[in-house]
Design a protein that fits this description.
Elements (H helix, E strand, L loop, with lengths): L23 E7 L6 E5 L7 E3 H4 L3 H9 L4 E5 L5 E5 L2 E8 L2 E10 L7 E2 L1
Parallel strand pairs: 2-8, 3-7
Antiparallel strand pairs: 1-2, 1-6, 3-8, 4-5, 6-7
C-alpha cells in the first residue's frame, strides 16, 4: 500500500484474512503531520479513532486536546476489552483519493498497525 507519485490514490487495498474479512487500508495526507498516515477505513466503527503515539508527533495539537476536560469515555476494543480513558478529541483534515474532510477523532492507545481508524 502506498501513494502513486504526486497523488493520493492508493495502489490498492491491504487485506487481512483475520476473521475471514478484508480490511480496507489507505495511506492519507493529514494536515499537521509530516508523513502520510496509515488509515483503516472501518464501516462498522461507531467513532473515529486516532493512535495517541501518532498524535504525539504533533505535540502542540495533542497538548491542546489534552488540556480540554471532556470527562471519561469507555470504548470496547477489538479484543473485546472495555477501556475507560480520559476523553481526548482532535479534529483532523484527512485526504485520500477523492475524500478530503475534517473529521473528529477520539485519541486512544492503539497498536502500531494503524494511525487512524475512520
Amino acid at each position: 500500500m502506498g501513494l502513486h507519485e504526486g497523488d493520493l490514490a492508493p495502489r490498492g487495498r491491504s487485506s487481512s484474512n483475520e476473521g475471514g474479512s478484508d480490511l480496507l487500508v489507505v495511506t492519507a495526507k493529514v494536515a499537521g503531520f509530516g508523513r502520510p498516515l496509515r488509515v483503516l477505513v472501518d464501516l462498522g466503527a461507531s467513532k473515529n479513532y486516532a493512535r495517541r503515539q501518532t498524535m504525539a508527533e504533533n505535540a502542540r495539537l495533542l497538548a491542546q486536546a489534552c488540556a480540554r476536560d471532556r470527562g471519561l469515555i469507555s470504548v470496547r476494543l477489538a479484543t473485546g476489552v472495555v477501556a475507560t480513558v480520559k476523553k481526548v478529541e482532535v479534529d483532523l483534515r484527512v485526504a485520500f483519493v477523492d475524500f478530503d474532510s475534517v473529521e473528529r477523532f477520539t485519541v486512544l492507545d492503539m497498536d502500531e498497525r494503524f494511525d487512524l481508524i475512520l
